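Morning. Coffee machine broken again, so started the prediction first thing and wrote up yesterday's gels while waiting. Chain of 58 residues, entered below exactly as on the submission form.
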Amino acid sequence: MYLHFNEIFIPYFITITYINYYWSFFMSFYFNNDPQFVDFLLLMFQILFFLPSFLIFL
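Came back before lunch.
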């Protein structure tokens, strides 16, 4: 089945904005307010979260 561009990427863009906000807010408490490490974890999570969606279009 063909998946349209909007059906995949618009929900992912919406969820990633909330994930960015809540992840940076809550993880700053758990990791002793180290923004560099929190951003690194967020980047790793985004790569794992988005990679399957981009591979669908290959």
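The helical segments are 5-30, 35-56. Going to sketch it on the whiteboard this afternoon.
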